[in-house]
Design brief:
The complex is a heterodimer. By secondary structure, chain A is mainly β. Chain A is built from no helices and 5 strands. A 5-stranded mixed β-barrel of chain A has the order 1-2-3-5-4. In chain A, strand 2 (27-34) and strand 3 (39-44) form a beta hairpin. Chain B is of the alpha/beta class. Helix content of chain B is 36%, strand content 18%. In chain B, strands 3-2-4-7-1-8-11-10-9 form a 9-stranded mixed beta sheet, sandwiched between helices. A two-stranded antiparallel sheet of chain B has the order 5-6. The mean pLDDT of chain B is 97. Classes of the chains: A mainly beta, B alpha/beta. Chains A and B meet through strand 1, strand 2 and strand 3 of A and helix 5, helix 6, helix 7 and strand 5 of B.
């Protein structure tokens, strides 16, 4: 899997999760502006990120991209 | 295009009603509306039902004739409109096109949602289906978290603060406390609103609208026939519906809703008015940040000024531009499919000067803004005395 880099455009930490993700809560989601262009909605793993932070994709699970701080 | 009037309105209270089903709520609102409009069910020429997720919440599909037949509106076209939280705003828009275009003279719109029969995590999941399921929702987002990301970005770009968000909740609760039909008639303090249980950072429980049951109905007719029916008819001065991308990550800038701006421009154009001519408004405060963004997109304030404007009390009941004198979705409640029609009912009630303790001073012209999802649909309606 080629590394995909980007910058955090916006983010949130979900405390009140839908049924399917309740066991993961709280967790962080974000919209990432990709270096290659366009944006993607992703889950964040590891330490919490903020707007403007550089991130890298670490995994694609069930078609959901997971990013972490670079 | 014929001028159109609202000749009747009817609403159920909003709240959690364990003993009531979807149809009984819809029928109650519809019957009150027909009575208000002095019209028999047999005189209704077409019926539109605004409903978001009746099949998911209740298991019942084919809802439009299911409701209209129970109302005694028999044989005429009955159609359900689904546009997320803008379902009954969109139903009202369809009814308006039919009357304005000369197809029908009397059209009934009912909006309804029965939500409280499901536990909150299931409600979150059903509401989430109004987002982009394959992308943002699969990543773990809820509707609250989508608006939380909008709030976060708005704070970053414009310096909007947690206190600004809380001011919207405090104001809407103060208004809702005066509304006998509101779901949560409780005044809250700024401290409470700042310290609510976290839902999705930076939004807490007090930033979120309520999960409610309820229905609202509106009856339309050509303005030149309005005197034949009803009581204190109110004119549709301008109306427009617009669309935009459903997923947030396809939008250039998530701190503004292009669908709101487009619908507002068209509605203002039709009415021959601008933001300054609007005395008061019912805005779609599904989350506190949504009211702040709506103030900006409707041109009531400059971009980025919605937070300070709210915190200064200028949107209060006695402020220069009263916003959500009904209590809004925050305090009045948000039975999703009923909300757009309820906003029209609330604006009409103000223009008729029948809002009691919540009556605004300048009620000549009012605006309703009904938002679907995170901005995929918007309906803006401007109403004024006939």
């Amino acid at each position: 899997m080629n590394p995909i880099y980007g910058t955090v455009y916006t983010e949130t930490v979900v405390y009140s999760a839908p049924e399917a993700f309740a066991k993961d809560a709280p967790y962080q989601t974000a919209i990432i502006t990709l270096e290659e262009g366009g944006r993607v909605t992703a889950r964040i793993v590891g330490e919490r990120v903020a707007i403007g932070d550089r991130v890298v994709r670490v995994e694609l699970r069930d078609e959901v991209p997971y990013f972490k701080r670079q | 295009m014929r001028p159109v009037a609202v000749i009747g309105t009817g609403k159920t209270p909003f709240g959690a009603f364990p003993g009531r089903d979807l149809r009984s709520l819809a029928v109650e609102a519809g019957e009150k509306c027909l009575k208000d409009g002095h019209i028999a069910p047999s005189q209704v020429e077409a019926f539109y039902l605004g409903n978001f997720a009746g099949p998911a919440f209740t298991g019942q599909n084919h809802l439009a004739p299911y409701v209209s037949m129970a109302l005694g509106v028999e044989g005429v076209p009955s159609t359900r409109i689904e546009n997320a939280c803008a379902s009954s705003g969109s139903a009202f828009y369809q009814a308006w096109t039919a009357v304005a275009g000369g197809i029908y003279d009397t059209v009934l719109v009912v909006g309804v949602e029965k939500m409280t029969s499901r536990p909150t995590p299931q409600v979150s999941e059903i509401l989430g289906s109004a987002g982009d399921f394959s992308g943002e929702i699969r990543a773990g987002n809820t509707f609250a978290s989508l608006f939380a990301m909008i709030a976060r970005r708005h704070m970053h770009q414009f310096g909007t603060t947690r206190a600004h968000l809380a001011a919207v909740a405090v104001k809407n609760h103060a208004n809702g406390a005066l509304n006998p039909d509101a779901h949560m008639r409780r005044v809250i303090t700024l401290e409470q609103a700042m310290a609510g249980k976290p839902v999705a950072d930076p939004l807490n429980l007090y930033d979120c609208s309520l999960i409610s049951d309820g229905a609202a109905a509106v009856l339309l007719a050509p303005a030149d026939r309005a005197a034949d029916f009803g009581r204190k008819p109110v004119r549709v001065l301008g109306i427009a519906q617009a669309s935009d991308s459903v997923p947030l990550d396809r939008k250039e800038d998530i701190t503004t809703f292009p669908a709101v701006r487009r619908a507002a421009q068209k509605a203002y154009g039709m009415a021959g008015m601008g933001p300054r001519d609007i005395g008061f408004a019912e805005l779609h405060d599904c989350f506190t940040i949504a009211e702040i963004v709506a103030l900006e997109d409707l041109g009531f304030v400059e971009r980025g000024q919605g937070g300070p404007y709210s915190a200064e009390g200028r949107t209060a009941l006695r402020g220069e531009k009263p916003i959500n004198p009904s209590g809004g979705l925050k305090s009045k409640g948000h039975p999703v499919g009923a909300t757009g029609a309820a906003q029209i009912c609330d604006v009409v009630q103000q223009i008729r000067c029948e809002a009691g303790d919540r009556q605004v001073r300048d009620a000549a012209v009012g605006l309703a803004q009904n938002l679907g999802g995170s901005g995929g649909t918007c309906v803006v309606t401007i109403l004024g005395a006939l």
